[in-house]
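sanity check this record:

:::
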Amino acid sequence: MEKVLGSLLPFTYASLTLILMLIDVRKLSSNFNLSFDICILGAGAAGITLARELSKYSFEVGLVESGGFEPDESQRLYEGETSGSIPTSLRYLSTSRMRWFGGTTNIWTGWCRPLDELDFEKRPWVNYSGWPISKAELDPFYERAADLCQVESFRYTPEKSALEKSANWLRSDANLHSCFFHFSPPTRFGTLYRSDLVSSRNVTLLLHANVLRLEVDSGGHQVKRVIASGLKGPSFSIQSRFFILACGGIENARLLLASNSVLKSGIGNQNDLVGRFFMEHPHITRAKVLVWLDDEILQVYQGKVETGLFKHKIRAVLSATERIQRQKGLLNFLLAIEKKLKMPATRTSFAERILQLDRGRRSELSSFSKASERELEIRIEQAPDPENRVVLSSVRDRIGMRRAKLLWRMNELDFHTVEEALGIMALELGASALGRVKGLNGNYSQASQFFDRDAPFDGDRDAQLVLWHHHMGTTRMHSSEKRGVVDANCKVHGIANLFIAGSSVFPTSGTANPTLTIIALALRLADHLRLQKNREPL
């Protein structure tokens, strides 16, 4: 049964442990202190995964969530500023994150796929690339993460591998190959796993608790406590042997930068890296394809489908091969064939030109009656760029914290990858005698023809550039503190008991949606902390 604290009398935390598994901070009437073995800040996919796993090993776990079980006024604490290519009118910072139990899994659409092997490697043509761990090290955790997301394993049976390979209808798979996304129901972590946490004797869940700052010892080597409060009422402190920051790609950086009472540049920021290397997944839709293929062939590319081989829906996309990335010095990218466009009664100039071009080879093509136009969406990995960053605004929110400000734009390698991706698709379709690619303004080879590099986009789904609300990279992982904020175990460099979970630790983003990797890394961190259980307290 859920137990909610109405008012806290001056008892010690130890005397309340057995009766307080769920604390609503709004109902507290006085200051108090809590103490745990592990304190997790943030109850999204990473935080909930960590709390469930760590509670199995008899850790006393505190899980701190700013919101409640439903959306409320705390969502406004996400408001902030944007600069560069993101106009303030989009309200990107407050609409791309959800501040209640379950985090952004409350609106997640369920796309699941591991990162590719090359995504983890140091690539000479991609500055700041390379993870301190390999995909092989993360693969066992991807298996467990898939189970939590209610999708099947990505270690395919021969039949499933054959299906993925056969889905590629291009002449060859040397440059582009088909791969599948698995679709979670989608799993609402705050709903599905809520009872596990509320009923656990090892987990204390704090709702409506806003973290104000982390306080370190005088030497700046260890976090002593966290100071938090509700939107109204008193502040309180939480002590813990270990702290895990799991508040998302923007809030993780914001909290570290704001915790500057001892370390003046912020915690973990001794090399001015906190907040830098923010990455998104730009989606560009300024091209279309004319294809001579039956709808049945393209069905698995155009939306979520059931195949009978999987217990859930899948969708195919065309993905850049390692070969073409290395050969042309490209970022990773995907090509998604979107909704079917309505063909006009008369031939368009595009179709007319294609038919003229291929008149000598018409026997190789399907009849014109099967031709259809469709949107072509290019989804790219974004190059790590230290100038894309989260900083603190001069404006403060209602609880006195400086708001976040995001500086973001695409760089030259991003644009180059878009240009090449369109060219590769055009060549592959032409060589396969299956269709043609056309930029919406008539030229597929110049990305500058599709969008103004310096102008902000308008956020419309039909705009030239759309961001997918994936926040990555602001506390990046690297074995050296000169190049990263956390080490290979996600521990903050120079801070003995502080760890970070979530996509803010990604050194590079790949093209897969980040949720599955966030959960895999959280499971890996839980296993690492389990090994610390029998060690002496710090």
Q: What stands out?
A: Confidence is low (pLDDT under 50) at residues 1-19, 343-369, 442-463.
